[in-house]
TrEMBL record:
The lineage of its organism: Eukaryota, Metazoa, Ecdysozoa, Arthropoda, Hexapoda. GO terms for molecular function: structural constituent of chitin-based larval cuticle. Keywords: Cuticle, Membrane, Transmembrane, Transmembrane helix. The keyword Ribonucleoprotein does not apply. GO terms for cellular component: chitin-based extracellular matrix. The chain crosses the membrane at residues 21-44. PANTHER family: CUTICLE PROTEIN, GEO02312P1. The keyword Secreted does not apply. This is Insect cuticle protein. It comes from Popillia japonica. It comes from the Eukaryota. Pfam families: Chitin_bind_4.
Length: 150
């Protein structure tokens, strides 16, 4: 036969010894506390979603251009054009940059070119490497960016 203990939701078996009853009662109360803690933490930990502020594109047969920036401080722009079209050494030549705000609150920018010789980044914060320029990034020529805006 089961009897009720102090908590109306907890039933006990009379053959269970008192120390076990204490443990059962503690777990029953902890369940409520854990559920409450979970609900409160879920309410206050909503993910931050960045929104796109600007998005411009121009895709053509011989290349493309695009630019976007987001509400969390990210920006990316890229211009590509086909070089030596129709020849054996045909290649896509890309020039671009991206920037973001790091976890330390600083704005980081990387300029780059990419072509038949590889990817070549530039940035003052980049670690030393054989093919990395530690200079402020050059970015995209202003005329190319202006052509995106129309």
């Amino acid at each position: 036969m089961k009897k009720r203990c102090g908590d109306p939701n907890v039933y006990i078996n009379p053959s269970i010894k008192i120390p076990q009853l204490v443990i059962i009662n503690i777990f029953a109360k902890m369940k409520t506390l854990l559920l409450f803690t979970f609900v409160i933490s879920a309410a206050f930990s909503r993910p931050q979603v960045a929104t796109i502020g600007r998005f411009l594109t121009d895709f053509g047969v011989n290349g493309y251009k695009y630019l976007y920036d987001t509400s969390d401080g990210q920006t990316k722009a890229e211009v590509a054009e086909l070089k030596n079209e129709g020849r054996e050494d045909e290649a896509l030549s890309v020039q671009g940059f991206y920037s973001y705000i790091g976890s330390d609150g600083k704005n980081y920018s990387v300029g780059y070119t990419a072509d038949e010789t590889g990817f070549h980044p530039e940035g003052t914060h980049l670690p030393p490497a054989a093919d990395v320029k530690r200079t402020p990034p050059v970015g995209i020529p202003p005329a190319a960016l202006a052509s995106l805006a129309g």
